[in-house]
Design goal:
Blueprint lengths: L1 E10 L4 E10 L2 E7 L6 E5 L1 E7 L13 H5 L5 H8 L2 H17 L2 E8 L2 H13 L2 E2 L10 E2 L2 E6 L14 E4 L7 H13 L3 E6 L7 H6 L4 E4 L5 H9 L4 E3 L1 H6 L7 H6 L4 E3 L2 E2 L7 H11 L4 H8 L1 H6 L17 E5 L11 H7 L6 E4 L1
Parallel strand pairs: 1-4, 5-6, 5-15, 6-9, 9-10, 10-11, 11-12, 12-13, 13-14
Antiparallel strand pairs: 1-2, 2-3, 4-16, 7-8, 16-17
């Protein structure tokens, strides 16, 4: 099946806006052709949300508490609530968050999945149901899919979750004995699966030990100093930042520009659903207006860099021939977007999910 779209295309790995046509065949971008066509739409690659905890979608309005009281295992608020919540309710709440991601333009995400085997199975069950987006009409039907990288976590030293998911995602080297963490890391890598860990969220004390584990990526680094950033760069470890989450938990803002100056691959995530929505438009706008005044770089962090970090950049993250057509189509004529002059800057700083008129 062949389909042709016309619009202002946010094209290639450098995200250059050009007016023209995209030809799609069987879900793959076959051709991008520049044209003088006048259009009322922007066609952009979908987001990659590089760090989530959608299991805690069952609580979306927690009290303002210190970070440790909110999320530190095993007795943080989220962990207590997860233990008390029926399995079916956890699955239903995750299913809602997945649908929300799809409707707001995300085509792939990475989730740190607590709860061992049961936790991984719950997310996989939530992913099975076709997620409907009936208000999006692009001629491709209403059932849209999303790609999940599931990073599980052992429960009671049971490592069998690794047979069901893409790897391991741990909270911090300060939350378990280091020898136990090293054992988890070793078993994960023996199965050739991804290993990731939070570091530098509450302070800098766990960053060096996290780097020594040689993870596939680190999350947060809010409290990383010059020495830690150089060590991460030297070890060639990507980093996911979660700005809205870090400010809400009073962790502060990560030294993003210093990471970029050291050529660290940086991606963006929305973090815990109990703290933030999974809406990457909100994350992108917040990043652009508080931390990184470079619209092209901001969009890259929210799309291509996340795809690179997860090993998906041959398929996702930008609009190029041969990649999957994971696209969002936005109106230039909505009340919010009418009058824009720079499509990329307006997409980054102004666009909202209600400007979307189609998702492929």
């Amino acid at each position: 099946m062949e389909q042709t779209l016309k619009g202002t295309i946010i094209y290639g790995d450098e995200f250059e806006p050009l007016d023209g046509y995209i030809t799609i065949e069987n879900g793959i971008i076959k051709n991008v052709e520049e044209s003088t066509v006048t259009t009322d739409t922007i066609i952009a690659p979908c987001f990659v949300n590089a760090h989530t905890h959608i299991g805690d979608s069952v609580i979306k309005d927690p009290p303002y508490l210190p970070l440790a009281e909110l999320v530190q295992p095993p007795h943080g608020l989220k962990h207590r609530i997860l233990q008390e919540t029926p399995y079916s309710d956890i699955v239903a709440s995750m299913r809602a968050s997945i649908s929300d991601m799809i409707k707001t333009g995300t085509c792939a995400f990475a989730d740190f999945r607590e709860g061992g085997v049961a936790g991984v199975k719950a997310l996989k069950e939530a992913l099975k149901t076709p997620h409907k987006t009936p208000y999006l009409n692009t001629g491709t039907g209403t059932g849209h899919s999303i790609l999940a990288t599931i990073l599980g976590r052992p429960a009671n030293e049971d490592m069998s979750y690794l047979d069901l998911c893409d790897g391991t995602g741990l909270s911090s080297t300060s939350d378990l004995e280091l020898e136990i963490i090293k054992g988890i890391t070793r078993k994960t890598k023996e199965k050739r699966k991804k290993f990731a860990i939070h570091a530098g969220e509450m302070d800098s004390s766990d960053i060096a030990s996290a780097i020594e584990l040689q993870p596939d990526f680190l999350v947060h680094l809010t409290h990383a100093g010059k020495k830690e950033i150089k060590a991460v760069a030297s070890a060639d470890i990507p980093v996911v930042i979660c700005l809205r989450s870090n400010l809400l938990t009073r962790s502060g803002l990560p030294p993003l520009q210093k990471m970029l100056d050291e050529e660290i691959l940086v991606a963006v995530g929305t973090d815990n659903v109990m703290l933030n929505s999974v809406n990457m438009f909100s994350e992108m706008e917040f990043l652009a207006k508080t931390n990184l005044y470079d619209d092209r770089q901001v969009f890259k962090l929210c799309t291509l860099n996340g795809a690179k970090m997860l090993g998906l950049d041959e398929e996702l993250g930008s609009i190029k021939n041969g990649k999957k057509a994971k696209l969002m189509i936005l109106s230039k004529k909505s009340n919010n977007m009418q009058g824009i002059r720079n499509p990329l800057s307006s997409l980054v700083r102004r666009a909202r999910p209600d400007d979307i008129i189609g998702i492929i």
